[in-house]
Amino acid sequence: MIVDDQPVKSPASDSTPLLGDPSGQQADTELPQYTVHPAPIRSQRTKRSLSANRWVIIAVITLILGIVISAELYLNVISRVPRNYEYSFPTDVDLDRCVTAWPRKKKKNDGVAFYPYSVSTSFELPLPSKTLLLLSNGALSNGRLKITESSEITDVQVNVTVKYFSTAVRDSAKVCVIERYKGESGVGIFTPSNWRNVFLSTDRIFFEVELTLPRTGSARYVPGFTTDVDNFSHDVDSLSAHFGDISLTGTNGKIQAKLLSARTATLTSSNAGVIVDSLEAQIATVRTSNGRISGSYTVSDSLHLENSDGPINVAVAVNSTDAKKPKHIVMDTSNGALHCVVNLLVPVLGQAGTFHIRAHTLNAPLQAEIASAPLDSVLTVDAKTSNRVASVALPSTYEGSFEVVTSNAPATFERVYSGERDPACERDEKCSGRSRLVRATAAKRSSVAGTAYWDQKNADRGKVSLTSSNGPATLYL
Fold first, then answer.
1. For the chain, what is the domain count?
2. Model confidence, pTM
């Protein structure tokens, strides 16, 4: 066998420069022979597919991690409640006894997402000698108050139902018997004022409160009754009890009452209406905003209705027990129509009275009717609006001056009771009767002034002013 000792050289066509060889030429050194298998070449589409799959896998993993982390944070949020509560207790209120343990058995509220559970407690307390109280405040204060009567009880009964999602949130509320001054007691509902997020659905809580008064002899008169509840509505049944002073105060909740009787009545709300079927009081005050004031109000001294961005639609009766004391009716609103029908009465036929009526609104229609007034009464009316139509109707018993003023629209007066009977003849059968004089003393397109009277000496007894702008104004006599 002949062995060739000559080194084997790679063919020039397959030559590969050695690393570090600057010449880039084939080296003359002897090289071992290797069999080289070229790597398979993938298509561009396959590369893109693998890259896309890689990103999909990353996105899915990220999403799963996000869900796990969010769920853990969510569970931490609903289970971890701030321990250092701060409460805004009224400085003049003492907490007597509070609910420290709610019943273990909770009621499942089917179909209620925000409040799936509820528990209840109740209090019985004697009617206080001065004022019955119901107070609620705090970041989570929210609910509905119903006031009713029962002949089957002898003490005041207060039932409180708490609707909630989280037990920890429920337990943060303090529901207590409270005392203020000597002779003033009731129930208070207080929630923390430093809550983490009052808009979190799991933190929402709702209080349903039913306060029942005894319908017995001594309880027919209640010296005082005060509510001051944030984010609560009031629903008052027909109450036979007469209150010395009643004050119902809430926010963001409607006040509805069927029948109320009091010496002094004050109803206050916001962002909701005040609707009263019948209220009788010596002095009555109603205030709200962004809602309507409506109903029937009978007062013996004064009535004050105050609204903003909402209508007033009321029937008012002034039934005076003291004809010598002036009576005041004030109705103020804005951006809402004002419609009122007023009857002015005195207890003894033939007596006169002094009545002052103010009816103001803005950017809305005004329609006021003084349906009746005693003969020889002093009546002043100040009615005003802007940018809309305005009208006032006076009874045939009115005697005094009048003025109607507007702008960019006609101002007129119309006589409705032509040929009417002398009202003085109703108390004197032998009365021969007088004629009524209604005349204009100054007239322009946008203003008119005049007088109306049965007796010349009463030409300046009363005064009526009707004012509008950019809308017609009409006075009916």
1. 2
2. 0.80
